[in-house]
Fold these 4 entries.
Entry 1:
Amino acid sequence: MKPTACWLLLVVVAVAAFGLRVIQLDRRPMHHDEANQAVRTGLLQETGVYHYDPQDHHGPTLYYLTAPLLHLSCGRDFSGTTETLFRLVPVLFGVGLILLLAWIVDGLGWPAVLVSAGLTAISPAMVYYSRYFVHEMLFVFFTSGCLIALWRWTRTGTLRWAVATGVMAGLMFATKETCVITFFSMVVALEVAGVWSGSRRGVLMSSRLRPAHVVLGGVAALVVAGMFYSSFFTHSQGLADSVQAYRSYFIKGVSSGNHTHPWSYYWHLLGWFREGQGPVFSEGLILALAAIGAGFILMRRPIGSADPALLRFLLVYTVLMIVIYSAIAHKSPWLILSFLHGLILLAGIGAVALVGSLRRRSWKVAASLLLLAGAIQLTVQSWRCNFQYESDPRNPYAYVQTSRDFLKLVKRVQDVAGLNEIIAVVSNDHDAWPLPWYLRKFRQAGYWQNASDMPAGLKPAVIVTSMDRDQPLDGYQAEIYGLRPGTLLNLHIRNDLWAAFLSRQENQ
Amino acid sequence: MNKLTAMLMTLTCAAMVGQAADEPMIKLKLDLPKPLFTGTPPTLKSSNLEPKRTGPRPDMMVPEGVVNLAKGKPVTGSDANPVIGDLSMVTDGDKDGADGSNVELGPGKQYIQIDLGKTGALYAIAVWHYHSQARVYRDIVVQVSDDADFIKDVTTVFNNDHDNSSGLGVGKDKEYIETNEGKLIDAKGVKGRYVRLHSNGNTSGDVNHYIEVEVYGK
């Protein structure tokens, strides 16, 4: 296939990926983490102020890269923002992840790049978290950018790629604290792959990488990360906090809690997941092809025009990432992306190696058709994940997901109370989110830990209470709504508003 | 003559009522499936929710000879092609809360309808929607009629649709948490051939589930 046709195909894949990611972006209720990030971004949008929180919420890039879109769409008015607007940001980075592959064509070859692009486009996990307003897709994009720049730097030894590597590393650092795992895996993989490929001194110490370039790359990383963490040179404390944060994140990583899962957790989600009578979800096609790719790399069999050193690097890097993430007690499904990205690259290699190893043309055609059938099945799963089971616990990636029933609570509040009415939320910390996002249009929404904390005599139009707080409340009609699987909320509607609502219902 | 007729009618009615009142009553015994979670979560309280009960469920008295008329009877519904399972599971006698025992109907307002085969006097209706997780199923309305289309002579025996979102009238019954005990509804001897059960999603999602429905009568 001619390079022009390959380019065209890559763009077609990217456009298709965009289509799959962008439709019905508001379909899934906001997860409490998404809502939290959206509200923090809204503060930046409205006030222009952001300070990094070393205890939680991860790095600044998500907020700073989203705020311009919010400004363009609705100025400084956070209440005018929508789910679609926020989720458009990870969508763009999810599509960008595919287009980035164009910079590694001379390392993997067009066939492997196109297969990897296709698998990235349809992987249920990739699609699901491209439609999810958290840091993960940005982080994977910057990781991919860093890997590509690093490879090109080690290959060309030019300053340009040294700086590009530094910029991408800086963006990774400014996005998520888990970047240290990726940096560690990259450096170890680089050295192991270097020795494996016959370099006595490894890659980092090779004469191709000039010390001045290493320093300049490091400076680029520090400048980029420093810019974000210092809130663009307005909050110097952010720089120190960005380092101190690792203490709390380390404690979270090793301590037991609600997010503690066994080492096999990610394999269960990716390999074979069936909850109750729900459908089976499996990204087994990617796992199988990645295993084939790994086998060919280990056997030192040539794979098309791919650079053997790069393949070894990718194999060691991906295996290391899987081992480290599996060993950490604290697990959440979106962390899969960090190593799924590597697995997809290996799967691209595996597919090309598999078809290339077959001698007869008819076998090649049969294998290609089989892979196509697998890809179609993966697309169907992606559709189910995102448009049928998007907030259903039977979806492996819907983790502590807000229930669709919660949207009925929001609608009921909107139906009975005016935007100037007092809305009270009396809740524990866990059950308050994602209410602040959904109540953003109400000008007088207040949050209390206990009903007794509310000012005496206050008679809010509605009171949302978590089940562990005081209830019932006199003078209010109560309704129960699901927040998440196993977590319910009470909505108390003042009797006069309830009567007016019922009267309106009757007249309709 | 008219007076005599009226007297005779009154006496006949009195005799019939007396007969019903004198009819030996027994405790309705339900075979309960294994519990998958224990009772109402202690922190769950709401003025629109049945309060947490301490001790066993009060007995429901029914006339002697009452049997489950719904067992194995045909079931139809608003969702002819359920998401999971099939409608026959509603009357197959399997009340287990584990997977594979329930039928899942599509999102939003849905109903199922049981044809008892002939008109009978119905005394109790027991329904199990789902009992492996604390959930509230919304807008539960249970109706009985001799009309398969439920247009005329419809008797509502249970309705907790407090905001009339199903359009079947405002219900005064309270919402409840599903458990292995199911919901036992007093049908008060209403006569009918068809039993229709409405629901409108649940607190965990939009879809509707039925494990089993039993209709006790004769």
Entry 2:
Amino acid sequence: MGILAIAEATQTMGVANCDAQSTAALWLIYLVSCNLPLTMAWSTVLNKDQFNYFQDSLAVSAANPQGAAQAAADFTTCTADQASMNAATGFQTTMVQNEKSLVKNLGNAMDQVYDVESPLAQLLKQTTNLILGFAS
Amino acid sequence: MTTAAGQFTTDFASLQTDSEAFDAAQVQLNGGTDPYTGAPVVGDKSTYSTEFQAAFNSINPQLVFMALIFVFSGAGFNELDDGLGVNGAALQVQGDLTKCGNDLENMTLPSSSDPNYNSPTLVIDVAQDSDLMLDALNNVTNDSGTDTWSQYLQNAIGSDPCSDLSGQYLIIRQDIYYSGDTNPNANNNPDGPNYNPTAYGTGTDPVPVPGQGSSRTYYFDPTCPVTPSDPNEYMISNFGDLQTYMSTQGDPCQANEASKSFTDAFNMNTSTTQSVQAATNEVITNDTNTIKTFQSFDSDVMHSLSDVVRAAIQNQTKT
């Protein structure tokens, strides 16, 4: 009876563990689908910042000394946006890393789920041998 | 195809059934009364008394000795087997708990083709299902007053993990506020005894307005305006908007923080159930190995007995 209960429970645990892994995978897909448009949006901003900086840098000349100040302002904007992008996307990247750790742990736990079956299988084998030994 | 909300209902029902089965297995182990029929449960150990009575009364020291060995080893074997049954039932409960947590997490991750993707329904479902989990983990009597099974649930996973899981579900639950919330124990429920308006806003209106009152401690309110572009949407009203906001610059409605709060709680939940399962697995492996030892002992004794009998027969034959 005990062995049957364990076998049934092992099945439930296996299903629950797979379920947890698929949920984690689903969440990763969800997060990536959030992260891509966010990264794209920030990349567009950064491209524009860099273009402005490049354009204003070229415009600096003796005839246009105030252009240097404009270019410096562009550079500051670009640096600030880069930091904001890192903060915004980095937050999600951290979540991805945490989820990856969870999936790895779930994979290890899956091994343990079926390790429980090992001594039970040995017990059944021993029981069979015992019966066969007395029957012969 | 079953929805995540429908799957939760199924798995929660299994949690109840398996918690009751755990209790029945415990009764079998300890002997006592069947929790459902009220009939006394006869332990396996007592069945030996009649089978070996003749051997005990035979006055033959060899037979009495052998009978004693078999009674003790057999009783030990059965006790351990019943123990395996209890641990198996506990594993079932732990698996159900994991599945319920997964179902809740799945509800927060609807696909864009889900009819409730942009609907507050799923947010309310998550809040109400979290309430069910909190009631079960805290052994709170539900409306029908028939949830004695939550005590069995606590016995199956232990009080500390129960408390940990409860704290994790509370984090999820407290991220959601909605007026009309019927759970009297939710701290976010303005109609409940635990509600503290100063924690969530000021005055008679508990909904904080940007720039006014105390800072909020929750992210979701299904009754907020649902148009993402609406400047008055200061709370996340549905999981579709959560995804939209997470994809948008400026972190509207603190969507990233909201997602992280949920994700961290769900991940801790999974880790807790996995840890409990690992501990139970250790016990099962140990018990199984002990049963093997008992069985080997029985086998050796029986072989020895066979040898003695064989030698006696041979001696008898010679004479």
Entry 3:
Amino acid sequence: MNELRDDVAINRALLTNPALDSGAIAVRGTVFHVFREAGDHDVTILRDGRVTGRFTVAVQPEGAVPQVNVDLAGLAADADRSGNVTGHYAIREGGVMGFAVGLGVGRYAVVIGHTAGGGSRTVLDSRGQLPAGDLFAVTLITAGTYRATNLASQALLPITVSMPGRGEPYSPARPTLVRAGDHGFDPAAAHILAGQSIVLLAETPARFLVAPSGL
Amino acid sequence: MADLTIAVSEAVCAKTLEVVVANFGLDVADGANFGGFIAGYDGRLVLKGGTLDLRDDGTVRLRELDARWDKLDFTLGVTMPEVCFGGGFVDLPLGGTVHLPGIDVFSGDPSVSVTVDLAPLVKHELSLVASPLIQHFDPATTAIGKHCQQLHTALDIDDTKQQWRVFCDPQTIDLDPFDFADTVGDLFEQALTDAVDALLPRGPLHDLILAAIGSVADLLRTLLDIPDDISEWLSDLFNVSFGVFNLILQFVADFFGKCVSFFQLDDPFPMFPKTSDLAEVMVPIQHLTATVSDVELVVTADIGAVS
């Protein structure tokens, strides 16, 4: 009596629940870097150690947007054979660039160098530790218990993820901020609904790993 | 006094109606994008039954014709709205706000469509009151649509000859509009709900998507902009948005008033056929009139100069 036609692809990365590592950015994990100094910054995107994109961010004292989010998988697709990405990014001093992955199974890293005085100084290499002030956001889809670890301090944060109650108001766009400092995480535990995000703020240099408790 | 008078009984007219009705067929198909959804239909309308009355007010009345759909495939397609997890804004302790990008659940064209054959679920009743309309047909100058040509072939109406033709020109047409029962609305809503539900991945993500969008039924009502009654919405779609109702009315008017005549008279008329020793005698027909009484259709004419 009826016929079904669908032309849809499910974001398959949402069907799995691997650990999320700020050093290997994947779907459901986003690194936010805060640009504290004005001037040009060279951004290099790597996937499995191979350069997949390069571009420059001009950080301006004023007159630019406070935040830009980039999709690392999309950038890699748009880059030319030598990895250069056309397009110009400008961000206000103190502004944020978010590095996310929209689709796929790739794991990415970001290296940012501040070019000044004829040299370049690395201000972020996400494969190591995030500098103080940077953030790592994870979106947890599957209900259960998780553990966030700051590998730099071995501090632990238990996270409980619940399914939204039937008939109760539910918005996935309600992130929860957790600070990660010298004395561990604050608050010491977090509770969110499935599909929402935990945002870990590095108050000291940090490397974050968020995994289901069983892993 | 007329030179020629032909009386056609009500029974003969009724028999003609049977043949005409048997050859009625309206093929309709259309589709449109209504923004949040697409809809289309493909159907064939036929007539069955019916009675004919000749009336003493000079009109012909066709009653209780069943207008039924041989097929009425109705397709409805919806595009899923963007469903994403995460996202939102977070305020930083030292000032400033960070915007989290959401994660899209679907990529590509997340659409789903359902086709339901509504033919067994909808029927109309047709009645009309018509007046005899006389037209002179000249194959050299009178245009005939392709559909009418096919009908004429089926009805043995000769389009190669000049003729006087008597049509039943509808003055009023009474047709039931589309009026789907509640059960039809329920059936359709369930089919579409099942189709959308099947689009969603199984497992915990399925439940979470449902939590994010409310429910599939709520989502559909939003996408289709249906207030309460889906069967009423469906009826309006056919009657008003697609204008199928008016399309049928126009077709019926053209079918009876312009396409299929109830009576034809060759002009010139073969008064005496050709024999072995005499040529055929043809007489021109002039001043044709047609009147209706409650028992017969009377056609009168004058014979012009014999050539």
Entry 4:
Amino acid sequence: MAEVIQNEPIANGIYRMVVSGAPLGRAGQFHMLRIPGALDPLLGRPISICEADAKTGEITFVYQTVGRGTAQFARLLPGQEIEAQGAYGNGFPLIAGEAVLIGGGIGTAPMLQLAKELRASDPTRRIDVYLGFREEAYLEEAFARYADSVKLNIGGYVVSDVNFSRKATFYACGPSPMLRAAATAAEQANASLFVSLEKHMACGVGACLGCTCQTTNGRKRVCKDGPVFDYREVQDAI
Amino acid sequence: MPSNPLQLTLCGVTLNNPVIAASGTFGFGHEYAKIMDVSRLGGISGKGLTLSGSAGNRGMRVYETPSGMLNSIGLENPGVKHFVEHEASYMRTLGPAVIANLGGHCEQDYLEGARLLNGANIDILELNISCPNVKAGGMAFGMLPDTAADITRKVKAISKHPVMVKLSPNAPDLVAVARACENAGADALSLVNTFLGMEIDVKKKCAVFENVYAGLSGPAILPIALRMVHQVAHAVKIPVVGMGGITSAADALKFLMAGAVAVQVGTMTFANPNTMLSIIDGLADYCTSEGLQNLQEIVGII
């Protein structure tokens, strides 16, 4: 059982929760978070890792209160217990060379751990971060620690800020329209792009088949075979 | 060596305990074997199979509801042949009793599926009669006593494995269906499958699921499932395996007291993978505290 260390709002409807005692995991992976013993809401909520700190053993989740489950998380106080099963999913591959990270809304969260791992795996590589928000930015300052540049877009289309023709690996997480725009741009520029998908899921481990998506390599489970895919594989599923 | 108070015999098969992973919630065991000790389970009912397999449904497939969930997976499965060649032998290595769950959309599919399963090293064939019968306008085989009995009798005639018929709670007269399956030769019954439910997205003004209706499971259905298990268990002589929203040892005990010899657990495994293990521990503790030689002593006491 994990313990809540900190749980505070960082923007309107956006919370940052630090927990200890959960398996760490890495960028692009997620945990199924759940109030211990709760029968309503019943299922865990897949929340991606925003930061995993091997030194302190703490994981930071940044989540949006969208329904009853996440609203319940928002009421957790430091010292209370939370079930954090995981880390599940495949995570982002760390490809050598320059990296461009694109985060939209709450899809910004997993990009922070990705920036951290990309920086740690190669201190000299160039990392550029593009973040898009509807009204209010968050986490942007944290990116400054790992990235060479952080560009914000409030209320517009973050993908239009990105030059897909440059030689780099592109990573994106955000709402479907943003991912579709990124996939289209990547295709036109013949760029390498990894996207993190989101779907309703019940188990998070690949058993319930609730999050199956059609890919060019057959049916895949977003929770187990993903959530990170090469965009070429999942263009029909975004 | 002291005897195991949780041990039971189901369809001639010895189970170490009465806790079975419900079909459709445990795959063929691969995923959960990585995160829990699956060898401790009494049995595993594999993902529901159809003869040629299925890609499953499009659109939303799972949706949480108060204390439960709706699913419209659409029996996504790799087909009976794949199961026989790859999954059955894997499931055998896990330890628990191996149950293959077979569905179908027409009689021929069921019978050919049952015939192929004769070549698999399984313990029990669980016959899913909740599938829509294409030739009957999509009405499920398990809705009426006649159609349920007919498919049960024909599968029994072909299968070399014991046949446990999984009943649909959507049948207008569930007890009549249960009796009909018993008379048709079923070795055991399992119930309940999911209840047909529905959810609407008010913002989008549309049904959440492409098929409009979906199957409801989880704690929300427990009292109704328990009542149905009670009614059926008291109406037939063959063993009944109960399920529907079980989350704890206390819940499992309710189903046993209502007349089930064993239980299946499904939805709660999604919420917490260790649920079945804690239920098994809880049942063992119960035997100790109640001084039971065997847990079966409490079966059907209500």
